[in-house]
Amino acid sequence: MLRPDPSNRPRARFQVFRVPFLIAVALAIAFGGGIWSTLVALDATVGFGAIKLGPWEAFPDAQTSKADPYAKSHRANAGKLLYASAEGLVFTAAVDSTGARLSGDCTYRLSGHTPPARFWTLFPTRPGGAPPSITSDLPTALNSRTVLRQPDGNFTVDISASARPGNWLAVSAGQPFRLTLTLFDTPTAGSSGLVDLSMPSIVKTGCGNA
Amino acid sequence: MLRSFAFKLALAIATGLIGAALLHLVIVLSLPYFSERDAYTRVLAKGERHRFYPLAEKPDQAGLAKDDPFLEVAVCSFDIGSGPIRVMAPGNVPFWSLAVYDGASNEVFSINDRTSVGGMLDVVIATPVQLTLLRKSLPEPIAESILVETQAAEGYIVLRSMVPQPSFAAPARQFLAQATCAPFEWRARNQF
Questions:
Q1: Tell me, what DSSP letter sits at residue A135?
Q2: Which residues of A touch B99 (CB under 8 A)?
Q3: CB contact, 8 Å: A32 with chain B?
Q4: pLDDT tens per residue across span A25-65
Q5: In this complex, is the C-beta atom of A121 within 8 Å of any C-beta atom belonging to chain B?
Q6: Would the ipTM clear 0.90, i.e. be above it?
């Protein structure tokens, strides 16, 4: 290899550190990138194989041995007690029916009906937060026995930081939230005809004090 | 000179990215085997095996908590290496469900009050060998139990009971408090 100028001392010194520098770059990218991408991937999703029904998302196979490696890794890291297929199926929604993130600054109306299930529960949580306490002073959770229904069996739930008549779920103002709808003893978990299922829609009715 | 260095730097970055992808795969694939935070480790941390521990709303030391405000939940870890166990709970609650998981948190079996016999919770969990022995001469007490076969000797059980309104809480808690998941006398003496 031709050296341009042997008397150029800074460059000679630079050349000494060139190979260790390149190795350090490669190792830093490998370890930093590998660990970071894994953390992001395990945090972002429960895995592949989600059922998507409008804004709602469920993972019916996450607790089985058929789950993909990401789902298995996620559940080993999260350490949650998942629902088995005869127990229930958890749907979560982080966005409304138009795809915009759910925010505590806005008021949403959840309406329609759920897929067939013996019992369901609905509550908002902060992203990654704990489920609400049943002893809370505000109505933070509803279930199929306590919800007020219309004569045809449908129901509407207003999700807002301020009080609403009818079914009201309280959220914290100014904070994003996600909704969890759990269907218990539902044929949905074992069914393959999931496309026909209808989930309630989540429509934004206003923001701020409007 | 500079150009060759830029090329080598690009090569180093490319090597790093390939290494990152490999490390990503290695971590994702091996995490279930090394995780200290998985559900089975947390259930084991609740205490001795073969008894149900109710969960509270707040996460306990092991990090387990109820996932739904309208459910009461109890967990039990089991090891059927030395003999099968029987899961029973008396009482009448509007909804209960039972899930059996192996040590890797894969679902082995699940049942709820509608799919069980007469709404009663009475399940025997055994390995295939134990089940063969059991079927040869089914002991009288478990003649009507649901027999569940599992390849994995170790695992945990989750029992849930519904509390749609506060007045259902007392029976639901009592149902979970009276639930047992313990070994039983499964081999008649005259077999030896």
A1: T
A2: 63, 82-84, 86-87
A3: yes
A4: 999 999 999 999 998 888 887 778 788 888 998 888 888 88
A5: yes
A6: no
